[in-house]
Write a structure and sequence with these properties.
The chain is an all-alpha fold. 78% of the residues lie in helices and 0% in strands.
């Protein structure tokens, strides 16, 4: 959450600034940035509903290593196909309400481990014809409200559960630093390159998990 907020703070200032100016002028949706803020809010609804309705399954049944590996491989295929559809529009390409809602529905699939929230949302944006960098940028903007909502739900559980906050704070700082670096590197990388290495990584990870599962079964058998 900290990494996404820091990496895109200028974007959020611009979006909220446009929204406030529109409200003051009596035309709340006249500015494209104000509309984008509303679209991000609406696109967050499917993921929030999925989290509320399927949270127990996400923590139990969906955690099967075989299922995780399967979703890694399937999303690798989806990302490979989507990458071939990436658009080549200019810097000013606009996200429509339809696009935002479809990307939001894709985000809801991330309730299944192995799907990857960013992988699903970036793939959908690529299928819709957005550029690689623009797809990643919208995906990360969409990450902030859903991550903030998840934090509001999960952090009180940590507090009431008597968690040792030393490791939590250390992990949070490590996640913030590594997340910020990952965002910066990804955005710079996809300006001129494809998502091919990420497709290869997903296939390699899936094969590794399946190999370990088969080896364990052979040993236990």
């Amino acid at each position: 959450l900290a990494a996404v907020a820091f990496a895109f703070w200028r974007d959020w200032v611009r979006l909220f600034g446009a929204a406030f100016r529109g409200l003051a002028a009596g035309r709340p949706l006249a500015d494209p940035d104000a509309r984008l803020l509303v679209y991000l809010a609406l696109a967050s609804v499917p993921g929030a509903l999925a989290g509320l309705l399927l949270d127990d399954w996400a923590e139990t049944a969906f955690r099967s290593p075989g299922l995780v590996a399967l979703m890694m491989a399937l999303m690798g295929l989806v990302l490979w196909a989507a990458d071939r559809r990436a658009g080549r529009g200019g810097e000013g390409e606009v996200v429509s309400l339809r696009d935002a809602l479809l990307v939001g529905l894709a985000q809801a699939l991330a309730i299944v481990p192995g799907t990857s929230r960013s992988g699903a949302t970036i793939s959908m944006a690529l299928f819709l014809g957005h550029r690689r960098e623009a797809a990643a940028r919208f995906s990360f903007l969409l990450a902030l409200p859903i991550t903030f909502g998840a934090a509001l739900v999960k952090v009180p559980d940590l507090v009431h559960g008597g968690t040792d906050f030393g490791p939590v704070v250390a992990g949070t700082v490590a996640a913030a630093v590594s997340g910020l670096l990952a965002i910066r590197v990804l955005l710079a990388y996809v300006r001129t390159r494809t998502y091919g290495p990420f497709v290869a990584y997903r296939f390699a990870f899936a094969l590794l998990v399946w190999g370990l599962l088969l080896a364990r079964r052979a040993l236990l058998g």
